[in-house]
Design a protein that fits this description.
By secondary structure, the protein is an alpha+beta fold. 26% of the residues lie in helices and 26% in strands. Strands 1, 2, 3, 4, 5, 6 and 7 form a seven-stranded antiparallel beta sheet that branches. Strand 4 and strand 5 form a beta hairpin. 10% of the residues are buried.
Length: 123
């Protein structure tokens, strides 16, 4: 039998944690909660036994402390300041929730998301 680490999603679907951990790095996903709720899109990184790394697509922080991050969010909200996105950092999930489900997006879905985002560009 082949290695589970080579599993590739062919269509968007919801998978359990065990299946998700076997998926390759760079898999685009959103955590699935309750009946019809999803978190933001993230990119799966390396799997570490029963844990994994991920990248946020909306992260701006530069390894700030929690206090510095909250301060920046307040400045963005209250003063209109902006900070550049940081798309090259990863975080550890570390939640070990065996009953967690994941909506996993296939290459076609990712291409559609990219094409839709391109339509938002104003230049």
């Amino acid at each position: 039998m082949g290695s589970l680490s080579l599993v590739k999603i062919k269509t968007m679907r919801i998978v359990n944690r065990k299946t998700f951990l076997a998926l390759p790095e760079n898999t685009v996903y959103a955590k699935h909660f309750e009946e019809d709720c999803f978190n933001e899109l993230q990119i799966k990184g390396e799997t570490w036994s029963n844990d994994f790394l991920y990248e946020d697509l909306n992260d701006f922080d530069d390894n700030d402390t929690s206090e510095e991050r909250y301060e920046k969010i307040g400045r963005m909200r209250d003063n209109g300041e902006s900070f550049p996105l940081r798309l090259d950092s990863s975080s550890r999930d570390g939640l070990f929730e065996d009953d967690q489900w994941f909506a996993v997006y296939d290459d076609n879905d990712v291409e559609k998301i990219i094409e839709r985002l391109k339509k938002t560009l104003t230049f």
